[in-house]
Design brief:
Chain B: This is LYR motif-containing protein. Chain B: It holds the Pfam family Complex1_LYR. Chain B: Residues 12-69 form the Complex 1 LYR protein domain. The structure holds two protein chains of two kinds. Chain A is 42% helix and 14% strand. Chain A has helices at 2-27, 66-77, 89-109, 122-136, 152-164, 181-187, 210-220, 239-242, 293-331, 358-363, 385-389, 394-398, 411-431, 433-439, and strands at 37-38, 41-44, 47-49, 54-55, 116-119, 143-147, 167-171, 192-196, 224-227, 246-250, 261-265, 335-337, 348-353, 368-369, 371-372, 400-404. In chain A, the strands form four sheets. In chain A, strands 5-11-10-9-8-6-7 form a seven-stranded mixed beta sheet, sandwiched between helices. A four-stranded antiparallel beta sheet of chain A has the order 12-13-16-15. In chain A, strands 1-2-3 form a three-stranded antiparallel beta sheet, with no helix packed on it. In chain A, helix 2 runs antiparallel to helix 9, helix 3 packs parallel to helix 9 and helix 9 (293-331) packs across helix 13. Chain B has one domain (10-79). Helix content of chain B is 65%, strand content 0%. By secondary structure, chain B is mainly α. Chain B is built from three helices and no strands. Classes of the chains: A alpha/beta, B mainly alpha. At the A-B interface, helix 1, strand 1, strand 4, helix 2 and helix 13 of A face helix 2 and helix 3 of B.
Chain lengths: 452, 92
């Protein structure tokens, strides 16, 4: 019976669609003056392409899974109540949905729902963890340990604390991107208040040895915080096994909505934080502000999906990553994978192409949506600090491309990406005098460049 | 309660399979369309050898609810389909 309604609705909407676009265009002109996509292709920022690029930037963000959107829509349409309204059905149903989503998020990391606080994203959760913990324990604890490859929000929070007078140690990483456990052990002091190490790096995809780090932290009784934004739903996470006290989670990296995240805060032993958002005391006083029911429901649905699909997705993404890497290395030499090849998340492939300039490579890859090594860091053309921490040479850091593979990526897209990348690299190398010299056998590093 | 529902007949399972694939074809988005096709085929293949009747019923009703979600979302996605398609759908 419902299906007949749906079928009829579908027939109606195909007719409606042609009507609605014409009228809405006239009634509500878009704020940006020209439409950038007409029937003919896309023209934006001086670039013309025939269609929407194929998306290989899953670490930046991921598309919404239709099943997540389906869970969210009712809370945007009729069930729009504020979950903190205690006196009517709208509040009660909204609150029930938030609590159900809380349980879904908790189940994915083997935590209790009482340990999950919803935030506006992993950045906010990182801020609460780093600044909140240190400010709460500031009388006794003055030292933080973190790594050089952390996300900007963690590094920036640490810098902010440094200005307030705390000591911060930024642990270096090896050329494979992994933290040295002995170095960590020797850096812990009696007044260390927090160790913060991200589980999966967003630029190079390296997975840190969280269980071993957790053991060291337990030994010294130091709380461990981890930014698991890139790890959630992709690798198995168990807060008990990893002995994690605080964990930052993000919704939009696991096919959920943007603008929502969560903070896991251990209850046994209890970790306390100073709230960064003051107000009506929502979320146990840790994060005041109305909890956005549609977003939170979306994140819960995304987490439940991730739990069911983790194994299947990993098999698929692994297959695609192998195809991508072997496809490129079969036709090109001078390709380097940045970061450990054993301890890495399969959906993140960060490659450097020797003798090619990164910006010009990206400009030729307009039909593939990828990110380069320096994109996340700033508007300047400085190579990424993560690659620099790995010890990658400047010229190789400049040519790094990050391919992000996800649940919805197809084999055909991988093949097309290989085709486009190989063609562009070959074209650029053809034009490169450095490459000519390398082919003749000259060692580039031994060249004495003339000063003009 | 599970024992009250008889397990689906072979024809019902096949009909569900075909409906899911038909709905997959209706998605305006290239990636979602391909994923739905692939996921349907792999899920039915994986559950092909289930013998326990309650497991079969559970899988079948899960499939039916997924079909409802897919039908709704196919409509929503088509309402907001961008005018320009993915490069993967344009003749190379």
């Amino acid at each position: 019976m419902a299906s007949k309604h749906l079928a009829a609705a579908f027939r109606r909407t195909s007719r409606l669609r042609t009507l609605s676009t014409a009228s809405t265009a006239a009634a509500h002109p878009l704020p940006s003056a020209e439409a950038y996509d007409d029937g003919d292709g896309i023209s934006m920022k001086g670039v013309k392409i025939a269609g929407r690029p194929l998306y290989l930037d899953m670490q930046a963000t991921s598309p919404l899974d239709p099943r997540v959107l389906d869970a969210m829509l009712p809370y945007n349409l009729s069930r729009y109540g504020n979950p903190h309204s205690r006196t009517h059905l709208y509040g009660w149903e909204s609150d029930a949905a938030v609590e159900a989503a809380r349980a879904q998020v908790a189940a994915l990391i083997n935590a209790s729902p009482k340990e999950i606080v919803f935030t506006s994203g992993a950045t906010e959760a990182n801020n609460i963890s780093v600044k909140g913990v240190m400010n709460f324990y500031k009388d006794k604890k003055r030292h933080i340990i973190t790594t050089q490859t952390e996300h900007k929000c963690v590094l920036d929070s640490c810098r902010h604390l440094q200005q307030q007078g705390f000591d911060v140690t930024y642990l270096p990483v090896g050329p494979d991107g992994l933290v040295d456990l002995d170095q960590l052990r020797s850096t812990v002091r009696s007044d260390t208040g927090l160790v913060s190490v991200m589980m999966v790096n967003n630029e190079i995809g390296v997975i840190q040895p969280m269980e071993e780090i957790g053991k060291i932290c337990k030994e010294f009784n130091v709380p461990l915080h981890t930014d698991a934004a890139q790890a959630l739903g992709k690798i198995p996470i168990d807060v008990e096994k990893m002995n994690v006290s605080l964990m930052s989670l993000s919704g939009h990296k696991i096919y959920g909505p943007k603008g929502v995240g969560a903070l896991y805060m251990r209850r046994r032993p209890r970790i306390r934080v100073e709230p960064q958002m003051n107000g009506g005391g929502q979320e146990r006083g840790i994060r005041s502000g109305t909890v956005p029911t549609p977003l939170v429901v979306g994140m819960g649905a995304a987490c439940e999906l991730a739990m069911r699909e983790m194994e299947y997705d990993e098999r698929w993404i692994n297959k695609l990553q192998e195809r991508l890497l072997s496809g490129i290395t079969a036709r090109l030499d001078g390709v380097v994978v940045n970061g450990s090849t054993e301890r890495r998340y399969v959906g993140n492939l960060n490659l450097s192409f020797a003798y090619v300039e990164g910006e010009s490579l990206l400009m030729g890859l307009k039909e593939v949506a990828v990110s380069s090594g320096s994109a996340c860091t700033s508007a300047s053309l400085e190579p990424s600090y993560v690659l620099r921490a790995l010890g990658v040479d400047e010229d190789m850091a400049h040519t790094s491309i990050r391919f992000g593979i996800g649940r919805f990526t197809t084999e055909a897209e991988i093949d097309r990406a290989i085709e486009l990348t190989v063609n562009q690299v070959e074209k650029l190398r053809e034009m490169s005098p450095l490459y000519e010299m390398v082919k003749e056998g000259i060692d580039i590093k031994s060249i004495q460049w003339a000063q003009h | 309660m599970a024992s009250a529902v008889p397990p689906p007949r072979r024809s019902e399972v096949l009909s569900l399979f075909r409906s899911l694939l038909r709905t997959a074809r209706e998605f305006a988005d290239y990636n979602i369309r391909e994923y739905t096709k692939r996921r349907t085929i792999d899920a039915f293949r994986q559950n092909r050898d289930l013998s326990d009747p309650s497991a079969v019923s559970a899988a079948f009703s899960d499939g039916k609810s997924q079909l409802e979600v897919a039908r709704r979302q196919a409509i929503v996605y088509s309402l907001y389909a961008p005018k320009v398609k993915s490069v993967m759908e344009i003749k190379h």
